[in-house]
Structure formats: C-alpha cells, structure tokens
Amino acid sequence: MKLFLPEPESGEVDLFIRGAAFAAGSRVLATESRSAIARQLSRMNAPTAVVERSRARCRDWLRTVLFVELDAELASDAGALAERHLLRSLDAIHLASALRLTRSAADVVMGTFDLALRDAARAESLAVFPA
After folding, report:
1. For the chain, which has fewer Cβ within 10 Å, the N-terminal or C-terminal residue?
2. pTM of the full structure
3. Which helix (H) or strand (E) holds 71?
4. SS3 call for 110
5. Residue 125 has pLDDT above 90, yes or no
6. Distance from C-alpha of 11 to C-alpha of 126, rounded to nearest angstrom
7. Secondary structure of residue 113 in the 3-state scheme
8. How confident is the model at residue 97 (pLDDT cuts 50, 70, 90)?
9. What is the mean pLDDT of residues 105-131?
C-alpha cells in the first residue's frame, strides 16, 4: 500500500522499488494489494480522483511484477513456514514465494513492514527491507 497511498514510509519504499532489478511476489499479491487499497480508501472516505489514481498506480505496478505461482509445492512450503514461524497464511505464502525466488535469483530482498514476517524472513536467512 505504501507505493499507492501516501504513508510515512512511502518515499523510502518507492526508492527501494526503483533500485531493484525487478519486483517479484506471490500471485496472491495481486488480490491482496487491491483489497488493502480498497479497504484503506474506504476508511479514508477518499475522493473519487484519489481512488482512481491509487487503483491505476496499483494496476500499472502489478503489470511489472514477476509472479510466483501458488502451486502444491509452494502451498506445502508455506504451510510448513506458517507452523514454524506462527505466520498468517498469506504471509507464509509470501515468504515461501521469496524463498523459491532464491533458487533462481541472487540477492533476493523481501520487503515487508510486518514485524512477524520480517522476523521469519530473517530466520530463513533472507535479506529484508527495511533492515
């Protein structure tokens, strides 16, 4: 959401994304990001122009993301991570996706502001943003 709605860390996130060779994530990111934006905009009672601009920025960004598909192996890996680190299901899927990316890409950095997910990623030897 920090890419699409103004929040305290939005500038920092924007710089991080711009400096990355590519953005990647679980396929559930597409649904989760749209859902989070819609809920936040609704809570803010945002004007129509803000809603449309945020949705357009999200759609445009999602077109650039390399998606890791949720298959049986990833779901199993996510389940094991959820149990090991007591993660919520979507967070476990995101972590499993990042770990899968490490098999084919060097220097994978997982971006999250969720403290439990950040701790789990570090425990799995992933680099994390913000540090």
Report:
1. C
2. 0.89
3. none
4. strand
5. yes
6. 23
7. coil
8. very high
9. 95
